[in-house]
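Much of the work behind modern protein science is quiet bookkeeping, done one molecule at a time. The fold becomes a row of whole numbers, each drawn from a learned catalogue of backbone shapes. The protein below has been through that process, and both of its lines are reproduced in full.
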Amino acid sequence: MNRRRLIEGIVLAVVITALLVWLSTRAFYTYTPKPPKEAPVPTVVATACAPCYCCPCPSCPKPEVKPAVKKKPAHKAAKLAPVAPAIVRLPPPVAPALPPVPPSPTTTAINQLCPNGWTLIANAWSLQTLPEELRTKTEGLITVAGSRNTYRGDDVSRTIGGVLRKDVKVRATTNADIRVLYRDPKTLAVVKDLGILKVSSGVGSFSFPDDPRSYIVETIWPATFVSPTVSMGERRLWIFPDEWRRFCSPNVHGIVP
């Protein structure tokens, strides 16, 4: 009996395996019929024949049948002609120039006030000929300035220059050559050497070839003067761009012994 059950089990397993193989073949190879192609419809061109419409007759010529023209599928896009890539040529790099500092917002007003341009006036004064009180004050300012090697705005020229022109008036009988330069207000580098301002009998003037308000105007005085103070090895006096707001012809002052 055990042998019989074993045989029946083997037969049953073979049948189940064959059934599974058949079912898997049906699942992966299911036949899908293709839709029938539409036959092209012929185009019939009828000729003029009044008596004949449906059936052929001797008096009517046979209609001409033109084969149907197969249309290209709409989904096929037309081939585009190749387009050459555009080549953009950039200009060669240009080294950036060092432009001067832009003028202050008061440019228009100053242009209206200075139609003849800008002039620098230099004044030379003798320390010995000053009134006693003014001489003492001047000597004190010179002493303070001589104790430093940096430029400051509280110099003799700005502090008592107006008083000297108003009260003393008489300049020193001296001649001098004062060099005038432009410096960049940001980097303090020398931008341009403008030339020499000549002082004769204690006074001289210098007309600028262009607008000086964009620069620091530096004046370098001879070593025979005791003021301006020595800064970086020279007796220098600076005029800053904002000092041109009220003047077309500012004054600078130097002191001789």
In short: DSSP finds four helices and ten strands in the chain. Confidence is low (pLDDT under 50) at residues 44-55, 95-112. The two ends are 147 Å apart (CA to CA).
